[in-house]
Design goal:
mainly alpha; 2 helices; elongated
């Protein structure tokens, strides 16, 4: 069974793919494969972010199920 890569690993790989595409050094065939890989990585990252957002939403719900909206303050970290 393949180990699921972390969000950070996927982002690093996506950055590498984007850099390679932006360099213009890849052939059309390589560029298409890189583009496809980038789309898959992007979707994977989006899924991970969506799941994290859902978890945060659940954690911030009141007992009655209504959501509590709180400002995120980086200085509190």
């Amino acid at each position: 069974m393949a180990k699921t890569k972390s969000f950070e690993d996927n982002m690093l790989e996506l950055e590498t793919v984007v850099s390679r595409l932006e360099s213009g050094d890849a052939t059309l065939d390589e560029s298409m494969k890189l583009f496809e890989q980038g789309i898959k990585l992007s979707k994977s990252c989006r899924t991970m972010l969506d799941k994290a957002e859902q978890k945060v939403t659940i954690l911030l719900q009141n007992d009655d199920g209504s959501e509590v909206e709180e400002e995120f303050d980086v200085q509190e970290l």
